[in-house]
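User: I'm writing a tutorial on reading structure tokens. Could you give me a worked example: one chain, its sequence, then its tokens, then a sentence or two explaining what the tokens reveal?
Assistant: Sure. Here is the example chain.
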Amino acid sequence: MSEKRTKRGIVLALLAASLWGISGTFSQFLFQQRNINVEWLMAVRMLVSGILLLAFSGIKKDSDLLKIWRTKKDRLQLLSFGLTGMLTVQYTYFAAIRHSNAATATILQYAGPVIIAGYLALKNKKAPAWPGCLAILMAVSGTFLLVTHGNVHTLNISGTALILGIASAIALAIYTLQPVSL
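And here are its predicted structure tokens:
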């Protein structure tokens, strides 16, 4: 890979991370200050991002935008990923923001890797190595402290926000694991 492409990749990765980072905070502002609903925001985000991705892909020489739609198996996998992966992870994340805040929703969603580790441990019939177990323990402990402030008898967030956050973590795990064959 050329140095120019490497630099471009780094810049694009940093830009993507920055835009993702501010999207939760911006969404929280729209929900709380402008009373925008989750469904409208999701529809606009998904539509605009889909159009942009298709446009950028179409510009690329030798791109075949319709290739994935040619076989029934690919169509079903793509539709399944779009609905159970992309739509679910986006909706539960933004709904969790709506019912709590961007930071809490993000932390709850990123319990997803704990779910992935658990799934893979069961699937492979092998527990994670001790550093992985330690990371899981720390992630679960931190999440517990966030939502309870250390008191098992109280929740620091609404029950709805907690359920949506956990659903978002599960959706993130599905979103991550599902497209393996796409």
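What the tokens reveal: The chain has one domain: 3-181. The mean pLDDT is 93.
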